[in-house]
Amino acid sequence: MSEADKKRRDRAAAAREAANSDERRRERLVRIVGAITVVVVVFGIIGVAVIARNSSTTEAVDVPTADPNAALPAGVLPTDDAHAYGVPYGTGGADAPVLAIWEDFQCPACDAVEKANGAGIESLADAGKIQLVWRPTTFLDRNLGNDASARATAAWGCAIDAGKAKEYHSTVFANQPQQEGDGYTDEQLLAFAGDVGIAGAELDTFTQCFTDRTYLGWAANSTDVFYGSNVPGTPYATLNGVEVPTETLVDQPALEALVDGAASAPAASPASS
Predict the structure, then answer these.
(1) Is-contact 131 88, C-beta < 8 A?
(2) Closest CA to 212 of 132, 155, 144, 141
(3) CA within 20 to 30 Å of 68's CA: 35, 110, 213, 261, which one?
(4) Strand order of the sheet with strand 98-103?
(5) How far apart are the C-alpha atoms of 256 and 75, rounded to whole Å?
(6) Contact at 8 Å (CB) between 262 and 97?
(7) Average pLDDT, whole number, for the chain?
(8) Beta strands at 87-89 and 98-103: parallel, antiparallel or unpaired
(9) Is residue 43 domain-shared with residue 154, that is, in the same domain?
(10) Count of CA atoms in the C-beta half-sphere (13 A) of 168
(11) Do 131 and 140 meet the contact criterion of CB atoms below 8 Å apart?
(12) Distance between CA atoms of 17 and 35, rounded to whole angstroms?
């Protein structure tokens, strides 16, 4: 090998090593930034956690009255179920752990969880690894002096009938007002139906369902269970009846590990799930 060839080989080797070194530094930086992001998300959610207890009403507002005979959207769990009035989602069988999540559509911390790992939670349900149950509550209507949570939940019920439970749920959170208390207008809630693909005769049915406030009673019934279960605030998640820390709920690997550990464990009492 000539001296010139040797020098070219050495320069190429040095360039490859420099590139590899840069890539290793980049990967380390990505891991560090990812870890910091998770911490920031968790502390941000904890910082805005919405407490249900000892909350006073900002101003007088009419809230729907619980009615055990109220209509339920298609597939919503009945009164005598351990997760009464909850919305089941996914392909998990009866043996899969039950991940139940109490949410209020006006809750900033619920929105933060949705943005941080909503898709991850849904992926576990889609894969049949969990039975996901969304449990709606509208307690923030009393706190904020509006009825936006009840109307949003009622609209969601109409979307559930149209087969768009996940899509409408995600869209409502994605459009949560930046200013807490501004709520959702009827026009927005109707427009969300089109955004998630409800069209034609199904859109007409959705519009009539929402206009008639068909599922306000369902929203009130679920909220009544929420109060009766002494849930401390939202979001509040349980896996087989055991509380799931928020930092686990937003950390997909940690949540998957928790689900794997619960898959063969006996379920705990669902009294406050």
Answers:
(1) yes
(2) 155
(3) 110
(4) 87-89, 131-136, 98-103, 236-239, 242-244
(5) 26
(6) yes
(7) 85
(8) unpaired
(9) no
(10) 27
(11) no
(12) 27
Do 132 and 192 have their domain in common? yes
Are 203 and 84 members of one domain? Answer: yes
Q: How does pLDDT run across 78-87, given as a tens digit for each residue?
A: 999 999 999 9
Print the domain residue range for 11.
1-47
DSSP 46-63: HHTPEE-TTPPPSS----
Three-state DSSP class for residue 190: helix
Same domain, 152 and 18: no
In a domain, 271, yes or no: no
- Structurally, the chain folds into a number of domains equal to 2
Q: Which of 110-114, 157-161, 253-257, 261-265 has the lowest mean pLDDT?
A: 261-265
Are 145 and 217 in the same domain?
A: yes
Tell me the per-residue pLDDT of 139-159, one tens digit each, with 9 for 90 and over: 999 999 999 999 999 999 999
Residues 165-187 have pLDDT tens digits of 999 999 999 999 999 899 999 99
In a domain, 269, yes or no: no
Domain assignment of residue 270, yes or no: no
How far from each other are the two terminal CA atoms of the chain, in whole angstroms? 74
